[in-house]
């Protein structure tokens, strides 16, 4: 009895039939299997059973029956019933679990309420950073937010120093929220915006008039040509595609790309802000006129990514410091004439700076932020000049007051007495005698002496000191680029993306379309364009344009 297993090497057009005996290995519905071949069998002198010629002219094609079934493949070591290794099965399950987790995470991050909450939280921290003094020593916060008298009944210095709100814009809480918002923007881009762009770029033709009539705008042109409609749409700035009787047109695809650009621009802004908070240097110094300092000596890193550039070896010399005044005597502007020298002592730059007009060199910005009174040059009885250091005196408010003291020799006095000198600015000095009585006022530029307690006093010069802030901020170009791109892409996002479908149904053109913005304007535009489509006129058996027949 031949085996139920056989290989058929026949032309596919040949049908084969043969009855196979029942087998316990086959299900009941397959107990009788018919296999045969529609070719004439030869008589007793023909070939042996098991080999049947396939017919004249096709001797190379035959049916071969095997007396025994081929051996069943044995399960390999470590394989399951389907021949899969457990390790591969585990890897597949782990990969599926990873994909599900990734999809779930992207779904959570791209949630719009979450992104709005993150932006409000960041805005709240920024507002808090403007209220709470930044960069002050801990003692300042101990005094401002004492534990025995909390602000609002519960805010103490621990609420400020523990989360790092004394350096708000580099605190882990603030930077963590920026990173979370950036992740939400990227997730929204990949899960929502990019698929929308792919769909918008796809040429989608509609072959059903009912589908076209379901669009936001739908109209039928009873005697029109789809080719004429395409020409009209191309003249209006549409990209037009036709396929048989169908037409698809769109314009304003840039409006679909704009939200992606907005997200990328916001990520650039946050990346630049993060780099500024973690990779910058900052320092401040008060330098008297005529002295100098090395930039690297006063610069302090602000984050873990701060890398000192070679320009930190530059030396800054204050050539001159001077001030301008209003008619009322108040200070209107102050200036610093600065020179920069390299390691070889060569002057590489000289510039006069003022408030809101800084000096920039090698990635370092030097700002004019403050001024002070350093010393007073005084001659006594023709001797000198003596440099008397001016000390700041404590006053209520923002007014400045500086004072100095010139001792006088008096053997009859048990204590030290002398002449007191006070100044609010560099243009006038008020003098008092050793008894504290007002004597007079002198300007340093007047060169007029004054006699006090038998001594001739001459004010030679008032030496001011300039207050400078220095910083490096590698994130500023990124932030500026991000804000520029944000403004541009925001404007582009207001462009409407319009889509139009049309179908030629006999002499009727069914037109439908939609727009994601400015829907009323889109309907008005469509009505105006469709009115321009020429009407077809029948002449005998031919159909021509109305314009052509008129001509």
Brief digest:
30% of the residues lie in helices and 32% in strands. Helix 8 packs antiparallel against helix 10.
Written description of the protein model:
The chain has 551 residues and is of the alpha+beta class. 30% of the residues lie in helices and 32% in strands. α2 packs antiparallel against α5, α5 packs antiparallel against α8 and α8 runs antiparallel to α10.
Anisotropy-based shape = elongated
* Helix percentage range: 25-40%
Largest sheet: 7 strands, antiparallel
The N- to C-terminal Cα distance equals: 89 Å
Number of DSSP E strands: 28
Structural class: alpha+beta
Unreliable stretches: 1-20, 24-59, 538-551
Number of helices: 12
The Cα radius of gyration reads 46 Å
Overall pLDDT level: 81
- The proportion of strand residues reads 25-35%
Topology:
Layout: E1 6-9, E2 17-20, E3 33-36, E4 51-53, E5 62-65, H1 86-109, H2 112-131, H3 138-144, H4 157-161, H5 172-201, H6 209-213, E6 217-221, H7 226-235, E7 239-243, E8 246-251, H8 254-279, E9 281-288, E10 292-294, H9 295-298, E11 300-301, E12 315-325, E13 331-341, E14 347-354, E15 359-361, E16 364-380, E17 383-389, E18 391-392, E19 402-408, E20 417-423, E21 429-432, E22 438-442, E23 450-452, E24 455-472, H10 476-492, E25 498-505, E26 508-515, H11 519-530, E27 536-539, E28 542-545, H12 546-550
Antiparallel strand pairs: 1-5, 2-3, 4-5, 6-26, 7-8, 8-25, 9-11, 9-24, 10-12, 12-13, 13-14, 15-16, 16-17, 16-24, 18-19, 19-20, 20-21, 21-22, 23-24, 25-26, 27-28
Helix pairs in contact: 1-5, 2-5, 5-8, 8-10
């Amino acid at each position: 009895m031949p085996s139920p297993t056989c290989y058929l090497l026949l032309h596919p057009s040949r049908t084969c039939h043969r009855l196979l005996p029942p087998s316990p290995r086959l299900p009941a519905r397959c107990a009788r299997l018919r296999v045969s071949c529609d070719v004439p069998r030869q008589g007793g002198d023909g070939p042996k059973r098991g080999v049947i010629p396939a017919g004249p002219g096709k001797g190379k094609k035959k049916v071969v029956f095997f007396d025994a079934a081929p051996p069943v493949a044995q399960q390999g070591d470590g394989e399951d019933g389907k021949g899969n290794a457990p390790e591969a099965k585990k890897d597949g399950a782990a990969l599926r679990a990873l994909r599900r987790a990734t999809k779930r995470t992207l779904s959570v991050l791209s949630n719009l309420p979450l992104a709005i909450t993150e932006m409000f939280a960041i805005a709240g921290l920024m507002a808090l950073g403007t209220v709470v003094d930044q960069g002050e020593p801990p003692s300042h916060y101990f005094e401002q937010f004492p534990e025995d008298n909390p602000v609002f009944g519960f805010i103490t210095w621990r609420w400020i120093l523990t989360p790092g709100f004394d350096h708000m814009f580099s605190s882990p809480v603030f930077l963590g929220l920026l990173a979370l918002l950036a992740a939400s923007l990227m997730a929204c881009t990949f899960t929502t915006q990019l698929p929308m762009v792919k769909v918008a770029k796809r040429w989608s033709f509609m072959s059903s008039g009912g589908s076209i009539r379901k669009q936001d705008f739908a109209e039928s042109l009873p005697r029109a040509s789809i080719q004429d409609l395409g020409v009209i749409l191309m003249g209006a700035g549409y990209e037009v595609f036709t396929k048989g009787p169908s037409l698809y047109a769109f314009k304003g695809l840039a409006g679909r790309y704009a939200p992606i650009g907005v997200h990328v621009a916001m990520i650039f802004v946050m990346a630049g802000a993060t780099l500024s908070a973690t990779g910058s240097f900052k320092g401040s110094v008060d330098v008297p006129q005529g002295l100098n300092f090395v930039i690297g000596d006063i610069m302090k890193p602000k984050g873990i990514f701060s890398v000192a550039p070679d320009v930190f070896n530059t030396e800054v010399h204050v050539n001159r410091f001077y001030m301008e005044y209003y008619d009322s005597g108040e200070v209107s502007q102050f200036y610093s004439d600065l020179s920069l020298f390299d390691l070889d002592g060569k002057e590489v730059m000289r510039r006069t700076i003022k408030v809101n007009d800084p000096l920039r060199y090698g990635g370092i910005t030097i700002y004019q932020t403050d001024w002070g009174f350093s010393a007073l040059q005084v001659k006594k009885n023709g001797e000198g000049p003596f440099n008397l250091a001016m000390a700041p005196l404590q006053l209520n408010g923002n007014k400045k007051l500086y004072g100095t003291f010139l001792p006088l020799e008096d053997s009859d006095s048990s204590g030290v007495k002398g002449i007191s000198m006070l100044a609010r600015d560099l243009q006038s000095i008020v003098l008092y005698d050793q008894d504290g009585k007002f004597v007079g006022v002198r300007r340093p530029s007047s060169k007029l002496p004054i006699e006090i307690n038998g001594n001739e006093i001459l004010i030679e010069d008032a030496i001011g000191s300039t207050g400078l802030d220095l910083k490096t901020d590698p994130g500023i170009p990124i932030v500026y680029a991000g804000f520029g791109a944000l403004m541009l892409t925001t404007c582009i996002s207001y462009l409407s993306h319009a889509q139009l479908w049309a179908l030629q149904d006999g002499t009727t053109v069914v037109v439908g379309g939609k727009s994601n913005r400015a829907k009323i304007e889109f309907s008005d535009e469509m009505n105006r364009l469709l009115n321009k489509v020429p009407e077809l006129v029948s002449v005998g058996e031919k159909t021509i344009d109305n314009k052509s027949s008129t001509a």
